[in-house]
Amino acid sequence: MTTESYSQQKNSTKNVILTNECFEEIFKYLINDKDTLCSCLFVNRIFCKWVVKILWSQPFALLKEIPSNKLIQILINCLRDEEKKDLLKKCTLNFDIFSKKYRQPLFNYLTFVRELNYWCFFESTNLWLRNILMEQRYNHVNPNITNQVINTITIYLIKIIMIQGKHIRSLRWFNNDIYRDLPPIGRFPKDALSMVKYLSCGGFHIDDTAFNQLSKTCNNIIDLEISHYRKSHNSNLAALIRLQKGLKHITFNYISGGTWRLAAALHSQSSTLRSLKFVNFDFTDVNSKGLVVCNNLKSLEFFDCHGIDNEKFWKPIIDNSNFHLKKLSFARTIILSEVIEKFIINSNINLEEFMVDRTVTIEMPYLMEMLANNCPNISFLKIFLNSLDEISLLLSCISSFTKLKTLIIRTSACINISEILPIFSNLIPLSLQLLDFDMKISAESLQLFLENCKAPIQRIIMNYSYVLEDHIKVLINYVLEKESLKSIGYTYRTNWTSSDFSEFKFGVKENLKLLEESAKEFVAFIDPVDPNDCLFQCVGDSEGWGSSVGLQNTWEDLENLENLQTTWENSL
After folding, report:
1. Which CATH number fits domain 167-180+189-347: 1.10.3470, 3.80.10, 3.30.960, 1.10.10?
2. Which superkingdom heads the taxonomic lineage of this protein's source (predicted)?
């Protein structure tokens, strides 16, 4: 290559410009990776604009819904002077809460916001105003006036966001305070919520008219979550469900009163509904006619549900349903074994995630054989087993699940599997990445199991009270030899008490901590997740495989983000 041609190629490389479509393709893989996004702020002006837009599209999710006075201050900094004067006039205070001057931000973050969480917004404003009053030594202001000012500022900022950001995509609309009212939806710009795709609403004290207002404004919802609903004689929530153009996901949390209307309303979304989750749902007087026709359903979950009538609810499902599920979960919910059989046979090779507790397995000792014969593509299995025989049956069938990535076993008593586990080590599928169990096992048996297990396990969790130094040493040696294990979890890592360890020799806690300290460079130690016995996803979580640090805490996240952007702004 000549000097001239090399120079031309070099110059042409410098001038390469990515289109917006290219940036969209790049950043869609980073949308949940906040640390990487913050690093991208430093690349150049174009990267900075894209990253800021992404980070500020969901500020409350970024804060993990913890109130932040800094968030409000940044948004207020984006207001024009005439807007601040207008807001100050509406606040009816005899002093200027905006007297402290801040540098105008490089970006108008108000235009990027696509998420509204009213409760978190209100509490963040509350925190911000109280800090301002403390700084300016106006602690004598009447609390009632303070609450009025908080509400005024919150609603004003929301209106500005709706006007400048135009279309909100995510809305959380809750009221759990008997002394506080949500602002009427009608006070906000028309059509500002018409493009909401995710709606989470409810609360013990939400006004009856709120669902009626939402049903008139939000008709393009894809994902709906309702919590703490107790309106026996109100049909507005059922109307909200019926008026949607294509609901795909519905979650009911702690619902009682008028539940028959909600179940019946599912019929209106039968062609589009893909996932349905009931948590603490009162099924008294509820039939399954609205559910049975949802033949495109792919995920069905029941947790802590009660009041189910077998004839009204389960029998029609046995006789008429034709679900081909990918995910099926039952916990602390009474169900007929025939229903589980129906779901397993119909779902067949489609079923990928399966979770049941004792209410199912105690009535179906043959469950594991049935799963192995019908559902070989299960990748996530969480199951409650009642005896050593059932555990043996599971282990003998486990090789049938060639795509299994997560195996979680729960038992009612401290069952000792030291004798049987090593026997089945060579049957563990090569796909297994996470193993979580609460049975008793000796360190010697654990070592034999790991030596003969060919699966590249990445996380091991031992939910067994008496994990000793020898167990941890075995796991550390496994890390050093196989290098696949990324994290270790075991019960009572941080909350040890004398009663928990009355059988332990003196100093075991300190020795375990020393072992952790010596090994933390090549393996992470975690506290077991899954405190409420819910599904624990082993892949795809934003914090990676068992990182004991994870993302920084909420306050540091926002402050570091501010500093990063300030540094970039100063460099432009």
Report:
1. 3.80.10
2. Eukaryota
**Of 65, 32, 112, 39, nearest in space to 560 by CA:** 39
pLDDT digits (tens, 9 = 90+) for 349-400: 999 999 999 999 999 999 999 999 999 999 999 999 988 999 999 999 999 9
Q: For residues 298 and 104, which has the higher predicted lDDT (pLDDT)?
A: 298
Quote the CA–CA distance of 504 and 108 in Å, as a whole number: 60
344: tokens are 């397993």
Q: Report which listed range, 44-48, 136-140, 408-412, is most confident.
A: 408-412
* CA 108 to chain CA centroid, nearest Å: 29
For residue 571, the Cα-to-chain-centroid distance in whole angstroms is 37
Query: Over the Cα atoms of the chain, what is R_g?
Result: 28
pLDDT at 191 over 80: yes
- Residue 544 region by backbone torsions, left for phi larger than 0, else alpha for psi between -120 and 50, else beta: left
The ranges assigned to domains in the chain are 167-180+189-347, 352-532
Same fold, 167-180+189-347 and 352-532: yes
3-state helix, strand, coil in the chain (%, to 5): 45, 15, 40
Listed in sequence order, the residues at least 6 apart from 201 whose beta carbon sits closer than 8 Å to its beta carbon are: 171, 172, 173, 174, 210, 211, 214, 225, 226, 227
The beta strands (E) that lie in 243-373 are given as 249-255, 275-281, 299-303, 327-331, 353-356
Give the pLDDT score at 553: 42
Longest CA pairwise span in the chain (Å): 85
Per-residue pLDDT tens for 514-556? Answer: 777 777 777 888 777 554 333 333 333 333 322 223 333 444 4
Task: Compute how many other C-beta atoms are within 10 angstroms of the C-beta atom of residue 75.
Answer: 24
DSSP state of 219: -
Q: What is the pLDDT of residue 294?
A: 95
Residue type, 113: V
pLDDT tens-digit series, residues 434-463: 999 888 889 999 999 999 999 999 999 887
CATH 3.40.190.10 fits 352-532, yes or no: no
Q: Tell me which DSSP letter residue 311 carries.
A: I
The answer to whether the beta carbons of residues 241 and 211 sit under 8 Å apart is no
| Mean pLDDT of the region 171-197 | 85
Spatial CA neighbour of 276 closest among 316, 303, 258? 303
Instruction: Write the DSSP string, 31-86.
Output: TT-HHHHHHHTTT-HHHHHHHHHHHTTSHHHHTTT---HHHHHHHHHTS-HHHHHH
Q: Can you give the pTM of this predicted structure?
A: 0.84
